[in-house]
TrEMBL record:
Stated family: Belongs to the FAD-binding monooxygenase family.
Keyword Kinase: no
Cofactor: FAD
Gene3D superfamilies from the UniProt entry: FAD/NAD(P)-binding domain (3.50.50.60)
Biological source species: Roseicella aquatilis
Any Pfam family hit: FMO-like
Membrane-spanning segments: none
The protein's name: NAD(P)/FAD-dependent oxidoreductase
InterPro entries per UniProt: FAD-binding_Monooxygenases, FAD/NAD-bd_sf, Flavin_mOase-like
GO molecular function: flavin adenine dinucleotide binding; N,N-dimethylaniline monooxygenase activity; NADP binding
Amino acid sequence: RSTAGTGEFDAVIIGAGFSGLYQLHLLRDRLGLSVRVLEQADGVGGTWYWNRYPGARCDSESHSYCYSFSPELYREWEWTERYPEQPEILRYLNWVTDRLDLRRDIAFDTRVTAARYDAAANRWQVTTEAGETLRATYLITAVGCLSTANVPKIPGLESFRGRWVHTGQWPHEGVDFSGKRVGQIGTGSTGIQAVPVIAAQAGHLTVFQRTANYSVPARNAPLDEGFKAWARENYEAIREAMHSTPNGHPFRIEDRSCWDVSEEERRRIYEAGWEKGGLQFRAAFRDLLLDRRANDTAAEFLKAKIREIVKDPETAAKLADIDHPYAAKRPPIDTDYFETYNRDNVTLVDVRSNPIECVTPDGIRLRDGTEYPLDIIVFATGFDAMTGPLLRLNITGRDGLALREAWAAGPRSYLGLQVAGFPNLFTVTGPGSPSVLCNMPVAIEQHAEWIADCIAAMRARGIARIEPRPEAVDRWVDHVNEAANATLLPQAGHSWYLGANVPGKPRVFMPYAGGMARYRQICAEVAAKGYEGFVLSD
Ligand code: NA7
């Protein structure tokens, strides 16, 4: 057993968000390992530390967006609204950190600049920005999937005299929009949350839309005492439901085809889903993500809603000009998003037909020469998802193999948890895992538990190293592709699931679309068969 003072640890975990915190708890408190968590921020929270933009809120419902491994923790915390807002999630994660006494093993303000595997010693050598070196037998990345901001390289940005901000790197002191001319680029889940809140404060808001998007009202509301008591009393059933659904949410996707019902009944069902609100809308039929024609019925319903809500027909047409299947890109949910376009101080600009040419000192100029004078530009332009946060760690595995080289043509993993050539490196929510298609804490708990069980099994059997066999990786990559191709998901050409939002990024469908419940079973079988597909060595 190693000690902290020497810089030698059993495990180093990178990141102190949902994943890193739970991984620390498991390895330290259940396995008794010496563990150090390295976190670049000055506090815990990960995604919820950085994403402080106006309107930032989780799209999973509160009673499911939390840890569920401990009935005590689950029952002690009280959520206030149907969907948790960013400050509340951050408070929750700080509460868990203190409740489990995790803070003492986390080094804050500590950015990892490189990690290298030393084969002779079987140790990972982790270097930080401050020049510190730590050594550990196991290296676990808990860096999140959406944590590397994608700021498009628009010519002239450096010349802008106003201020620009990315939603994922929001200033802690906030941004004062009052009376300001604000331009927002991006209409994904983030942009759709931010628009109504920014519009309510700004002098004028111009939204630059490249790809129109569906959105369903979240129907957020305070939680009443009855619901809170119900959630506490039904902890086991809620957890069981989250573990048995493909997407880790506590609601089930109806086991009926869109073609099992009459057109009128279908409309009634969609209407009910629209009223219920949020991600539950997509649970209406089992074939919405499998059959394009079935999907079209939902898509048409949602486009008609846009035209109904938005008063100016030209704006409505631009907003409803959506060509991807509903939910093939991550479906946003909103509070008054489309309604906001009825405000006098909001303008929608289509930058698909007339792209942004450059940023000038005074604002944004489009290809046809139109210029929009701005004081503030908000980039709601998303992230270099899944691979971005891992690649920037500069990880080098066995025989000098850099992760960047190993993944030059796109990420390749086994179960999203390990990479061939990188012994004892575990990637929580890595590409090839279902995490981003799932209610995140459910995926995270499964990953962290699988990793802890794996390390425990290795130690019990005196195994020093684990890494996947290349054939197992090939099979998993094929299976990930097969699972994606069985759905409509790859049909959304502009999706970050495919890496399509970052110029030059290889187009590979990264998440496992076979469902969380199935994935859980596969991982359990792999472990039960003595870690089938992995090379275990002394
Ligand atoms: P997303 O979903 O990647 O959305 C980013 C948006 O920004 C999207 O509308 C993009 O249009 C747009 N974008 C990106 N680059 C540009 C440029 N260069 N010009 C114009 N518009 C651009 O990120 P979010 O932060 O909203 O959501 C990420 C996830 O967080 C979300 O899916 C949830 O899981 C939580 P595009 O579609 O690429 O044409």
